[in-house]
Amino acid sequence: MRACFAKVLLATSVALSPITLPALPITKSLTLQVYQVCDNAGLNCASTGPAGDTFFSTATNTIWAQAGISVLYNFVGQIKSTNFSFIDDNVAGRKFQDLAAGYHFQSTTIVDMFLVHSVAGAYGEGWYGRGGLVMGMDAILAYAAGGRIDTMAHELGHNFGLVDPLDPEHSTTDPGHSTNPNELMSGGATRNVPLTVADINPNGSGYDLVSAYQVAFARKSSLLHDVVAPEPSTFVLMAVGVLGLVVIRRRRVGGITA
Ligand SMILES: [Zn+2]
Fold this sequence. Notes:
Strand content: 15-25%
Number of domains: 2
CATH superfamily of the largest domain: Collagenase (Catalytic Domain)
Radius of gyration: 19 Å
Mean pLDDT: 86
Structural class: alpha/beta
Number of strands: 8
Number of helices: 7
Distance between the termini: 31 Å
Bound molecules: zinc ion
CATH architecture of the largest domain: 3-Layer(aba) Sandwich
């Protein structure tokens, strides 16, 4: 039965693949307000990311390009706090909510990102449906040579309100996460984490997939801003792309009806 179940999962995955759309034109963006947490003396600061990919910007943008979203970074400054260098939601004075409270706490329009040494029991945390995430950089960088490159994108997904309970792949046993391990929004214990950006959907192994449902849902987030209108020639290409999507959607609907 177990092997059979695995086959069903595989078949589901294959069947879903045509729904996976190529990267959309970038029409939405958000700017992360970045804070680097250091000790009380302003020393021993948390890492800002692996060499060559500060803030994991390449990986994060590769993942969210699937939804036509770009992620920009505004380094605001350092925070001097030994306590908040080691976030632990079970210890007073070291909770993420306490660190975030002094900034844009659970904003609906601004996303603060705090880089710390560790987050007890997790690689990172993100508010659900509100702006704000914290990254435990020591464990994230220790995960692989290039770091655990999709943690930031995953927590951002929670900020966008993913995974919605109405998502067809919403897990009932792991609330807020998907059941498909190839999806960005599956839980940290089950997710297939790419070691390089070459394995991010639609390339390589197709990891960190953002499903069509999640694309549509995430793009409604008030944390996002419309990208300034492109040049007319680019706009024509975009229009062709959008038309293509409409055709694909109609075909799918037709297929389901049939
Ligand atoms: Zn999560």
